[in-house]
Amino acid sequence: MAITLTTAAADRVRSYLSRRGTGLGLRLGVKRTGCSGLAYVVNYADEISDTDEVFETSGVKVVVDRESLQHIDGTEVDFVQEGLNEAFKFRNPKAVGECGCGESFSI
């Protein structure tokens, strides 16, 4: 089981945490929503519970609750800038479909 960050994503998370001044890392999860069924949830990790798994890439902790992990295990998180737009992008090997806007996915 693993969640990884590209160098660009790790740099961006470090930058966000530095500006925020607090936080343990990046929290990833999923919720049921969207036209494809599941959507990624990205937040700061301010604490780690007994039901979380913790991965570390380039010095950045990625915290995922075990229920979400079953849907995103093996995912690589990237950070991309396209013109004026910038966002985290997910390469999830379990995803078999995505909605047109890229906000939700199905497994």
Question: Secondary structure elements and their pairing?
Answer:
Blueprint: E1 4-5, H1 7-20, E2 25-33, E3 37-45, E4 52-57, E5 60-65, H2 66-72, E6 76-82, E7 85-91, E8 97-98, E9 104-106
Parallel strand pairs: 1-6, 2-5
Antiparallel strand pairs: 2-3, 3-9, 4-5, 6-7, 8-9
Give an overview in words.
It is a single chain. The protein has 107 residues and is of the alpha+beta class. The chain has one domain (4-98): Hypothetical Protein Aq_1857, Chain: A (Sandwich), CATH 2.60.300. 20% of the residues lie in helices and 48% in strands. The strands form 2 sheets. Strands 4-5-2-3-9-8 form a 6-stranded mixed sheet. The longest helix has 14 residues, at 7-20. The mean pLDDT is 88.
Task: Using brief descriptors, characterize the structure shown.
about 110 residues; alpha+beta; Hypothetical Protein Aq_1857, Chain: A; 6-stranded mixed beta sheet; 3-stranded mixed beta sheet; 9 strands
Instruction: Give the biggest beta sheet.
Output: 6 strands, mixed
- In the CATH hierarchy, the architecture is Sandwich
Low-confidence stretches: none
In the sheet with the most strands, the strands line up as 4-5-2-3-9-8
Summarize the structure.
The protein has 107 residues and is an alpha+beta fold. The protein has one domain (4-98): Sandwich (Hypothetical Protein Aq_1857, Chain: A). The chain is built from 2 helices and 9 strands, in the order E-H-E-E-E-E-H-E-E-E-E.
